[in-house]
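Handout for the seminar on molecular recognition.
Each group receives one record of this type.
Step one: identify the two inputs.
Step two: read the structure output and locate the region that could contact manganese (II) ion.
Step three: write two sentences on what you found, then compare them with the reference statements printed after the record.
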Amino acid sequence: MGKIKKSRKWLDKLQLNHPLLIAGPCSAETEDQVLKIAHELKGTDVSYYRAGIWKPRTRPGNFEGVGALGLKWLQKVKSQTGLKTATEVANRTHVELALEHDIDLLWIGARSTVSPFIVQEIADALKGTNKVVLIKNPVNPDLALWLGAVERLKSAEIKNLGVIHRGFSTYGKSKYRNNPEWQLAIELQTKFPDLPLINDPSHITGKRDMVFDVSQTALDLNFDGLMIETHINPDAAWSDAAQQITPKTLIQYTKDLKIRKESTSEVAYTDELKKLRAQIDVVDNQLLEILGNRMLVAEAIGKLKKEKNVAVLQSKRWNEILGKMVLEGEQHKLSEEFILKLFKAIHQESINHQKQILKD
Ligand code: PEP
Ligand code: MN
């Protein structure tokens, strides 16, 4: 077997003293729009200029991209500004056209990562390429699909690989367009520690005023870079208008975002501590969400009890639950004392919610 090439090499070669930044519009719309944005990003921290040429729209009837014509505009971006170029590819023809036009970075979109057939077709078309290839997470929170795509591309001898975390769609209401589910990105990073991990706060949030905070969380979690949708006139964008920011805002963000660099002893310690604390914050938020959901279920039960005129407190059932939880808790190394205290508090809160329902 040959030597394993570290996929980080392409990123290390850029010798950046800050996280990688990929920016540009969601879609290439006109030559003028593409070039104007690119000139504003010239000389900033941005290394790669992104623009979608073929747009995977969930519903038909929306702007579906300018097609191959946009690749010529990206070539002009490169020759006029020196920025490297990036676009999404979703089939063999896209790959061939992008390679013909010397696009430097090709990414696989979330709607493609869900399909092993498509991923394999793209991997075959890219076989052995030196271009950078980034794989977005699939739309659904399925780590195996994401890992599978990485494995297919690795098997196609694609050396310069990386992944983009763009969040996961949900049926229910959420403050995010796509829930971050940070733990999935962290797990992927644990499985493939040499793969650069890029965050896409634009598609996670869907709203420009949330982009900064999600970017900061990603950097706190030690992501290697950010891909941020940037447009000269965001509100007039032909796709994803609500989430795009101006180049000026982006430049301000690069100044305001706190970046921790790896370094020696004391600094290394505080760095590590901050990273772990960021992980704790993620888990704590999940706990709150889960507890909130539990109360919703308790309320639904409260409504049923009200209809049937049944008492809120049913001790037999409660004692059964407690016994079960103490046993389950042991398996997670949680003490009996803790489980009893925790579930007493949860139970009390549920009763309060149910009482409220009976009163209403
Ligand atoms: C995009 O980057 O514009 C895009 C379509 O993203 P995603 O595949 O994450 O939806
Ligand atoms: Mn977009």
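Reference statements: The chain has a mean pLDDT of 92. The longest strand covers residues 20-24.
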